[in-house]
Amino acid sequence: MEWINQLTFLERGIIAGIVIGFLCPLLGAFLLVRRITIVSEALSHITLTGITAGVLMAQTLVWLPQQNPMYVGLLFSLIGSLFVEKLRELYKNFQELAIPIILSSGVGLSAILISLAKSSYTEWYNYLFGSIVTVMKEDLLFIVATGLVAFGLLFAFYKELLSISFDAEFAKVSGISVKKLNILFAVLIALVISMSMKVVGILLVGAMVTLPIAASIQLAKSFRQVIGLGILFGELSVLGGVAFSYHFGVATGGMIIIVGIILLIISVLIKKVFVQRSRFFSV
Amino acid sequence: MIRVFFEYDFLTYSLYTGLMIGFLAPFIGVFLVVRRLALISDALSHITLSGIAFSLLLGKYYPLFSGLNPMYMGMVFSVGGAVIIERLRNIYRYYKELAIPIILSAGIGIGVVFISLADGFNTDLFQYLFGSVVAIREKDFMMISAITAIVFIMIVLFYKEWFFLSFDEEQASVSGIPKKPLHFLFMVMAALVIAASMKIVGILLVSSLMTLPVAAAMRWARGFKQMFVYSVLFGELSVVAGLVSSFHLDVSPGGMIVMINVVILVASIFLTKKTY
């Protein structure tokens, strides 16, 4: 781990960005076919609560060992992801209510905690909207470690996750424990969200999960292509976003999303032209 | 405790404004929840942020715009967002639910870029995000009163049509109700209410005032009309209690209002047994 000490702040940010640009769309593809992309939105807002709680704890409970607020954030988003499943059971006929409930209580609680913790606004803005220059050595280690864990889990359970995403009934019949896999899924989402937060910002993690996949599904012809193109778009938007934000001095998270939106618009246009052309030829 | 709210002008304004949005947001929220569009309020409120940021940016470079209340631009963006959501639903025919996260994240992303171009990462932005008790001026108060009046008149005029559309879209469109214009009008109303509530509750929390009271009311109500009564009751209760307590505890009013709503919701879930 010698090399990690020698990195400049920009290099740290870019490495973190590459890891995020790879994992977010990968997870997003599974979320898309399970039709729960919006869950990432809800969990990212819960992570905000965790982070504010972490910052507040570090300020008030001085006897506690100094910890990175990101860990508390990870813990909260884990609990939140299990909670979403529970609420879905409670509102059986209005399942989509679970998400706004979690989302708003997450933000509501963090709004109160933010006003209690008298930190500077800049610090909060970094958490909310991301900043590439604040990726510290420990943050990079956290990102790489959680990234490896998430990737390992996805790799090990790829087949099971695939089968449960496309045909839950069939998966159940063929002996896969749906409940266990749902929990695994929740853990994966929580991991990916809490690791992306530092670079893209809490309010924008959901975009990293959704936008590249929304673009890739326009062009892809198979699930593999959805993943492959999604990762390509994810990396492009992260690297493009970092480059532009550095040049124009704009918030990194915002610029990453803008590049993502441009890629999405381009792929929708390509699809339109392509479909019209094939119609033209077939007639 | 509440007396201090009548001693200072700006507090009186925010109390009255709070009463208005405590009525409006849950009322529109009932329609949204029943039509399974609860998440749209999140998307629209986030796109409102881009509008506000855009207005701040314009105001920085063109003095003509600096006098303009950012809320107007917020409304324009929010109505535009509603239109784009409908378009996206057509583009992603098999994954209609993608439209909302796309708009939601795009709204924040664009907003952030505008804000950082306008050098706007300051206290003002925090008030827009999480609400403020002291942010209501006489102008805002007048505007929100106007919005309340407009939305109220619209509800009285179109209650039946919206009611019909909410429960049976097919039947409604077969029996000759102009579905598209009515839906658009409803979205404009939702955008107006979001813009009106934003100053006190904050952009990130507006949607909770539209969904949480309704979610709690669903546990108690035994009919559609009762649902309105309970939702508005919970909404008003949370807004008034939230404003008063946030002023005395010096925390953000939006957060307090939402947490009171969460408490009401959790109590409702435990006190009632039926599952929806």
From TrEMBL, chain A:
- Major localization listed first in the record, in broad terms: membrane
Which protein are we looking at?
A: Zinc transport system permease protein
**Alphabetic keyword roster:** Membrane, Transmembrane, Transmembrane helix, Transport
Q: Which BP terms does GO give this entry?
A: response to zinc ion; transmembrane transport
Q: Which domain of life is it from?
A: Bacteria
Q: Please give the organism.
A: Evansella caseinilytica
InterPro entries for the chain? ABC_BtuC-like, ABC_TroCD
According to its record, how does it sit in the membrane?
Multi-pass membrane protein
User: What stretches pass through the bilayer?
Assistant: 12-33, 45-64, 97-120, 140-158, 226-244, 250-270
Q: Which Pfam families does UniProt cross-reference here?
A: ABC-3
Q: Which family does it belong to?
A: Belongs to the ABC-3 integral membrane protein family.
Location within or outside the cell: Cell membrane; Membrane
GO cellular-component terms in the record? ATP-binding cassette (ABC) transporter complex
TrEMBL record, chain B:
GO biological process terms, alphabetically, are: response to zinc ion; transmembrane transport
**Cross-referenced InterPro entries:** ABC_BtuC-like (IPR037294), ABC_TroCD (IPR001626)
Question: Pfam families recorded for this chain?
Answer: ABC-3
Transmembrane regions: 13-34, 43-62, 98-121, 141-159, 180-197, 228-249, 255-272
- Which controlled-vocabulary keywords does the entry list? Membrane, Transmembrane, Transmembrane helix, Transport
Tell me which domain of life the UniProt entry assigns to the organism this sequence originates from.
Answer: Bacteria
The way it spans or sits in the membrane comes to:
Multi-pass membrane protein
* CC annotations in GO: ATP-binding cassette (ABC) transporter complex
**Where does the record place it?**
Cell membrane; Membrane
Which protein family is named in the record?
A: Belongs to the ABC-3 integral membrane protein family.
Protein name per its UniProtKB record: Zinc transport system permease protein
| Taxonomic path | Bacteria, Bacillati, Bacillota, Bacilli, Bacillales
